[in-house]
Write a structure and sequence with these properties.
single chain; alpha+beta; 15-stranded mixed beta sheet; 3-stranded mixed beta sheet; 20 strands
């Protein structure tokens, strides 16, 4: 039994990191369906896995190291645990966790910890400040979440509808399904597609919401002011100004909008105020302006957040001869 459980542990850890091959997935699903005891075991193992990576991988995710921690945690758990029966309330608490195992292809952790919170009606995935998260939805749609972003979707996603709620920034490669459109709801926008690749940024604190289309076609509905539905085609970008509440379309190189998914920070004559917000989320820092006029300065640059730290970027600011900085711990002032 111990060898069998070790094999199951390996399947669960692989599911939660790089994804399972088709035959492996079928094997795990079949094993879980054999008994309530197996399902309880899988739930408990998933909980231990997430607690292990949360402690172990604050800077960079290491699957092998996390699995070693996972095995130590399971051993300690088994030594400390007393025989007990799961009450109905406990089963309800973990119902969404087992649903996540059954439908999620994988979670990849990049530069930080991703938080998964679940209950009976929804699944929530978050990328904290200073990190990014990648996951696959039950319909195989690929999603990247940028720092400080969150998506929420129902446990029955893909059964009758494909609908998620987004706060922050996400890049989507949507699996085509002509019978079931894919909908993303943010605070200010609704994006509806059949199958496409697009990026949406709508942080609650930002003054603009932006949708960039890489492939396919999307329909946009303004949720803060009644407007005619807008259709985007590849290399078109919509910007919603939250002050005048109107959508505006322009032609742009849409692929630039997804560069953040590979760790790149790309600024194309962006106001320094917007650049500062991006840096705050990407590096989990705070930036203040000693001179308000600096916020309107336009900045152009390209960096890689996995290879360059915040000081590298601040030095690039300094080389312009127009921007200087002071830094103390995580607090930065530009002047």
């Amino acid at each position: 039994m111990e060898d069998k459980n070790t094999h199951i542990d390996e399947l669960i850890s692989k599911l939660l990191t790089q994804g399972l091959e088709s035959d492996e997935r079928k094997e795990l699903d079949a094993w879980m369906a054999q008994s309530g005891k197996n399902r309880e075991y899988a739930m408990q193992r998933q909980e231990i896995w997430f607690s292990a990576i949360g402690d172990e991988e604050e800077k960079r995710y290491d699957q092998a190291k996390a699995f070693e921690t996972f095995k130590k945690r399971t051993t300690a758990y088994e030594q400390a645990a007393k025989p007990r029966r799961l009450h109905w309330e406990t089963l309800c608490k973990y119902a969404a966790a087992i649903a996540a195992i059954g439908v999620a292809s994988y979670f990849s952790y990049r530069s930080g910890e991703a938080n998964l919170q679940q209950n009976l009606t929804r699944i929530e995935v978050e990328a904290p400040l200073g990190s990014q998260t990648r996951l696959r939805l039950p319909d195989s749609t690929l999603v990247f979440l940028n720092a400080g972003s969150r998506i929420v979707y129902a446990q029955d996603f893909g059964v009758d509808k494909r609908e998620i709620t987004l706060s922050g920034e996400g890049y989507f490669e949507v699996t085509h399904n002509a019978e079931m459109p894919f909908t993303v709801n943010s605070e200010d926008l609704q994006v509806t597609v059949l199958g496409t690749k697009f990026n949406i940024r709508d942080y609650p604190e930002d003054c603009k919401a932006i949708v960039s289309l890489i492939e396919g076609k999307v329909a946009l509905d303004n949720r803060i002011r009644k407007e005619t539905e807008m259709i985007l085609l590849p290399d078109e970008q919509m910007t919603l100004d939250k002050e005048d509440k109107r959508m505006k379309k322009e032609t742009r190189t849409a692929s630039d909008a997804k560069k953040w998914t590979t760790g790149q920070l790309f600024f194309d004559e962006a106001p320094l105020a917007e650049v500062a917000k991006t840096l705050e989320r990407s590096y989990n820092i705070k930036i203040a302006f000693a001179n308000e006029s600096l916020k309107e300065c336009l900045f152009y640059g390209s960096f890689n957040r996995t290879e360059q730290n915040i000081k590298d970027i601040l030095e690039a600011f300094k080389k312009t001869g127009k921007i200087h900085y002071t830094i103390r711990d995580k607090n930065i002032t530009l002047y």
